[in-house]
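[Meeting: bench + compute handoff]

Bench side (C.D.) handed over the final construct sequence. Compute side (W.E.) agreed to return the predicted structure before the next meeting so the bench team could plan truncations. Sequence as handed over:
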Amino acid sequence: MLLYADEDFALPVVKILEQLGYDVITVQADGRTSALDPDVLARAASLGRIVLTSNRPDFERLRRRGGAHCGIVTAKQDGNFPALAARIHAALAGLSPGRWCIRVNRPPSP
């Protein structure tokens, strides 16, 4: 699966996702540091990639406005990078790129 990590997305999670077999490009590696959110969404769509971001409100707003995309995964920052990568991996299981937006939440605290 092809992913495009927004600038705010944790690089350690990107690395783990790559180890799990995902093809991930970061905004930084794509030479688009400081790109505006609509431009990130458009760039990911032009590459046929699903956006990974921690910026849920802005990307959900862009989706509601009808911005073209191949899928959006929003995930709260979590210092437990392996656990976050595992939750994203589970959320993406069986999905194909499409006009969906999924939220990956942290599990509730005990």
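W.E. noted at the follow-up: The chain has four helices and five strands. C.D. will use this when planning the next construct.
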